[in-house]
């Protein structure tokens, strides 16, 4: 088993431009209680991250629907949210990412084909979301969920949200210096990862990662907006 989760990191990077560095969180996110019970020296399984990821998904989807359906009633929003976060949808995301390939299961669970169960794949997707939230924060995990679960594209994130434009407006209103960006690039040519930093009044206010420079800067600007309280 790939305990460094190299292939999982590659898939997430290719799909969302997001780099996962916290191997400890990934190990926890992909350990089922059946494996932990057989390995008592290991004290954690994915249940806590699953709990956290479930709550984060609910919040991100609810906020997206609230903003995209201004005329929707509470009942309409509740029904629409349930459609997006139902178990089979999350399991499908887990299956498309191949999350079952990385999970550590107890011998009995593994022999019975547990890695392919829909319920397990749903749990793993939620645990992965929880791990991303702890490593990268709300803005980044919200982009991941909106892209993976809600089908929001890079163009949507750049044009509809327009965090760079909003940050410029905020700086103008508050008499801050206009934001400037620094960035660095890593990874091979076919899997570039851009890391951007946005600087306001001489201080780094936000950082973002993505598969393109524009999206990395947009994510950095979005984090700066969260920090500055737009």
Automatic annotation (TrEMBL):
Q: Keyword annotations for this protein?
A: Cytoplasm, Endonuclease, Hydrolase, Magnesium, Metal-binding, mRNA processing, Nuclease, RNA-binding, rRNA processing, rRNA-binding, tRNA processing
Q: Where is the DRBM domain?
A: 162-230
| Names of the cofactor(s) | Mg(2+)
Name of the featured protein: Ribonuclease 3
Report the record's Gene Ontology biological process terms.
mRNA processing; regulation of gene expression; rRNA processing; tRNA processing
Q: How does it assemble?
A: Homodimer.
UniProt similarity note: Belongs to the ribonuclease III family.
Name the gene behind this protein.
Answer: rnc
Q: Name one GO cellular component term.
A: cytoplasm
Assign the protein's first listed, main location to one coarse class.
cytoplasm
């Amino acid at each position: 088993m790939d305990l460094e989760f190299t292939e999982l990191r590659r898939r997430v990077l290719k799909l969302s431009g997001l780099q996962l560095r916290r191997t400890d969180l990934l190990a926890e996110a992909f350990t089922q209680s059946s494996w932990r019970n057989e390995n008592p020296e290991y004290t954690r399984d994915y249940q806590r991250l699953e709990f956290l990821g479930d709550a984060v998904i609910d919040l991100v989807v609810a906020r997206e629907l609230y903003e995209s359906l201004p005329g929707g009633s509470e009942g309409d929003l509740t029904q629409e949210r349930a459609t997006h976060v139902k178990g089979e949808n999350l399991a499908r995301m887990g299956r498309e990412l191949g999350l079952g390939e990385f999970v550590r299961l107890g011998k009995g669970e593994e022999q019975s084909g547990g890695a392919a169960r829909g319920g397990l794949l749903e749990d793993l997707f939620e645990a992965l979301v929880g791990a991303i939230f702890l490593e990268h924060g709300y803005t980044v995990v919200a982009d991941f969920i909106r892209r993976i679960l809600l089908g929001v594209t890079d163009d949507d994130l750049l044009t509809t949200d327009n965090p760079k434009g909003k940050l410029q407006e905020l700086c103008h209103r508050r008499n801050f210096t206009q934001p400037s960006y620094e960035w660095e690039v890593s990874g091979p040519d076919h899997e570039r990862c851009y890391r951007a930093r946005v600087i306001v009044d001489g201080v780094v206010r936000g950082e973002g990662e993505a598969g393109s420079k524009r999206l990395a800067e947009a994510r950095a600007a979005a984090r700066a907006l969260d920090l500055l309280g737009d």
